[in-house]
Amino acid sequence: MTRRAGLVVLGLVLAAGLVGAAYAGTLTDLAPYRYGGRAALDGLPLYGVRDPLSGLPFTYPPFGALVMVPLALVSLPLAGALVTAASVGALARVVAMPVLVVAALAMEPVWQDLRFGQVNLLLMLAVLVDLARPERKASGVLVGLAAGVKLTPLVFVVLLVMVGRRDAALRTAATFAATVALGFVVMPGQSAAYWSHRLLDGTRVGPPELTHNQSVYGVLSRLLGEPPPVALWVLVAGPLALAVLVVAALWWRRGDRLLGTGLAGLAMLVASPVSWSHHWVWAVPLTVAIWRHSRAVALAWAVVFVARPILWPPWGDGREHDWDLAQHLVGNAYLLAAAGLVVWATTRLRAGPIVGVVSDEDIQARIKGLIDQEHDLRQKLGAGEISSEDEHADLARIEVELDQCWDLLRQRRARREFGQDPEGAEVRDAGTVEHYQG
């Protein structure tokens, strides 16, 4: 990011803070956050009661209340300013360009997150930082902390295991366990209440049939006219989430860590019994990732979240139970769009490893990802995690793709040098590019 762009982003963050301060009283979830922090400080009950200001319950684990303590120590306007500014800052970190920050604000999950004073953008950034560089010594800690606040990021442990980052997965699990232990140390009674029965209380976060609940559990609740049996929900949501994780892991291993992590975010939203529309802020990094492969698909994906069709049919007060087929299709648009995206991502895997790149930077990023994979393979061979035959097979595949990447990069540079459109460069077969060294 250039200095000028950085200044623009800083201006957006400061402006967001001012707006958050001015409208702090309308940030619906900020009040129960502050109540949770105050309860942790003063020994008040966290569960079975409601925040006196908003009338809403605190629904997160006890560690979440400890995280909210700073918000309870400052005035409401300052708390609103901090949460809003930090959320817009996180959004800027994800999309990297000021104009994209403004564009992302048009997406319903993003402005809903800001309007509610939620922390989903912050938790998403924590996960993206960890999953972008899981080879760091502290990788996994941020995901564990995010899971300590909202349990659903635990899904990323499965992704880390699938892509062979077991050390990071263990750090995530250990960090999460530490958040649970800290809750029991500081708030033993409240922790016992939460982990024994509050966790499984499906009504603690609102009516599951509400159209804003874009999860498999929400869809089943709307179709059946009542919350589905747990067994049915698990039988439907479990395999679907696992399938999405498999596709996510394949993309991550291929070198597109942003797309892989974003798809894992969709698996998280599918698996959770409650995925409110403001949880779908994962639409933003997915748009960025998809753009590198297909601008048309990225635009179509983004339009779904700008148009917010889930709010077109009648909703609220149980009216979702009376939807006809067309209204179910429109009212479940986020989940259906996610299903379509996963199908596209799966077919794209078959299309070839470097189809769809749109810039030299994309190719260079892919080369770096392949080199990282080579290093991983050698480390696994040295640790006895894979056989030499498996290493040789994977290395052969990686070397072919590296040759193709270097050749494609050379073609683009040559076309640019002679005044031709670099987009005319094409991926050539392995026999043509074999052993090209750049």
From TrEMBL:
<feature type="compositionally biased region" description="Basic and acidic residues">
    <location>
        <begin position="425"/>
        <end position="438"/>
    </location>
</feature>
<keyword id="KW-0472">Membrane</keyword>
<keyword id="KW-0808">Transferase</keyword>
<feature type="transmembrane region" description="Helical">
    <location>
        <begin position="168"/>
        <end position="187"/>
    </location>
</feature>
<protein>
    <submittedName>
        <fullName>DUF2630 family protein</fullName>
    </submittedName>
</protein>
<dbReference type="InterPro" id="IPR018584">
    <property type="entry name" value="GT87"/>
</dbReference>
<feature type="transmembrane region" description="Helical">
    <location>
        <begin position="296"/>
        <end position="313"/>
    </location>
</feature>
<dbReference type="Pfam" id="PF09594">
    <property type="entry name" value="GT87"/>
</dbReference>
<dbReference type="GO" id="GO:0016758">
    <property type="term" value="F:hexosyltransferase activity"/>
</dbReference>
<feature type="transmembrane region" description="Helical">
    <location>
        <begin position="90"/>
        <end position="110"/>
    </location>
</feature>
<dbReference type="GO" id="GO:0005886">
    <property type="term" value="C:plasma membrane"/>
</dbReference>
<feature type="transmembrane region" description="Helical">
    <location>
        <begin position="325"/>
        <end position="345"/>
    </location>
</feature>
<feature type="region of interest" description="Disordered">
    <location>
        <begin position="419"/>
        <end position="438"/>
    </location>
</feature>
<feature type="transmembrane region" description="Helical">
    <location>
        <begin position="140"/>
        <end position="162"/>
    </location>
</feature>
<feature type="transmembrane region" description="Helical">
    <location>
        <begin position="230"/>
        <end position="252"/>
    </location>
</feature>
<dbReference type="InterPro" id="IPR020311">
    <property type="entry name" value="Uncharacterised_Rv0898c"/>
</dbReference>
<keyword id="KW-1133">Transmembrane helix</keyword>
<feature type="transmembrane region" description="Helical">
    <location>
        <begin position="258"/>
        <end position="276"/>
    </location>
</feature>
<keyword id="KW-1003">Cell membrane</keyword>
<keyword id="KW-0812">Transmembrane</keyword>
<feature type="transmembrane region" description="Helical">
    <location>
        <begin position="63"/>
        <end position="83"/>
    </location>
</feature>
<comment type="similarity">
    <text>Belongs to the glycosyltransferase 87 family.</text>
</comment>
<dbReference type="Pfam" id="PF10944">
    <property type="entry name" value="DUF2630"/>
</dbReference>
